[in-house]
TrEMBL record:
It comes from the Archaea. One of its GO terms (molecular function) is quinone binding. This is 3-oxoacyl-acyl carrier protein reductase. Keywords: Oxidoreductase. The keyword Lipid metabolism does not apply. GO terms for biological process: fatty acid biosynthetic process. InterPro entries: NAD(P)-bd_dom_sf (IPR036291), SDR_fam (IPR002347). It holds the Pfam family adh_short_C2. Belongs to the short-chain dehydrogenases/reductases (SDR) family.
């Protein structure tokens, strides 16, 4: 590897599985020290620690007190961070008319407020380091028609606007803020609990909806995050990279 992140310290929220894990692994390969945040699955977090040589930190990012305590522990063990990846996210499928107050608020708390709390807590580090923020959104937040994902899509649309506003507001500190909007990626979030046959059908269905005829893998997002974290993207700010296999006709297909 080329050591693109040598000497850098990165915090990835929700890094015990899926996209967060893939990002942590890519960063570690390029020399970064990684802070692996997790909320529940310590076993998976320890696996990522073993692979990356990083440190694990438990915190529910929707709880500001827990985020503050995580920051204290990270500063004690690893020092100040250079890179923040706001990856933590959850989703619940529901028709709009079946609005569930608890589930919608939970998505808002984790997907949006979690990114806000974590960014606020580590902003002094990023100002000093002229650091980088990468927000993980979704193509569901920029117009993809996905059945029963209205409220989830709203939280991810907010992440995209947060990215653009922070890119403007924090530019005076030379902090770059960009986002990744994945399409359908094979993770526990999307295929967890499904049978092999259900997964096969799902893969074939989504392959048919992309110009590349491919199903998304977490490593695709990890490599994009590495690009945004490194000096390779030094002239990018306030941008959203869509990684969805070239999804065909976002307005007519439904998940």
């Amino acid at each position: 590897m080329s050591g693109k992140l040598e000497g850098k310290t990165a915090l990835i929220t929700g890094a015990s599985k899926g996209l967060g894990r893939a990002i942590a692994e890519e960063f570690a390969k390029e020399g970064a020290r990684v802070a692996i945040n997790y909320a529940h699955d310590e076993k998976s977090a320890l696996e990522v620690k073993k692979i990356t040589g990083g440190e694990i930190f438990k915190a529910d990012v929707s709880n500001r007190d827990q985020v503050k305590e995580m920051a204290r522990q990270i500063h004690e063990k690893l020092g100040k961070i250079d890179i923040l990846v706001n990856n933590s996210g959850i989703w619940y499928l529901m028709p709009f008319e079946n609005y569930d107050e608890e589930k919608v608020r939970r998505m808002l708390d984790v997907n949006l407020m979690g990114a806000i709390y974590t960014t606020l807590e580590f902003l002094p580090d990023l100002k000093e380091k002229k650091g980088t923020i990468i927000n993980i959104g979704s193509n569901a937040g920029i117009g993809t028609a996905a059945k029963n994902t209205t409220f989830y899509s709203l939280t991810k649309a907010a992440i995209i606007m947060l990215t653009k506003r922070l890119a403007f507001d924090l530019s005076e500190y030379s902090i770059r803020v960009n986002a990744i909007a994945p399409g359908w990626i094979e993770t526990d979030l999307t295929i967890g609990g499904k049978t092999d046959e259900e997964i096969r059908k799902l893969e074939e269905d989504f392959k048919s909806r992309t110009t590349l005829k491919m199903f998304g893998k977490p490593e695709y997002i990890g490599k994009a995050a590495l690009f945004l974290a490194s000096s390779d993207s030094v002239y990018m700010n306030g941008q959203v990279i869509v990684i969805d296999g070239g999804r065909i006709d976002n307005l007519t297909h439904s998940i």
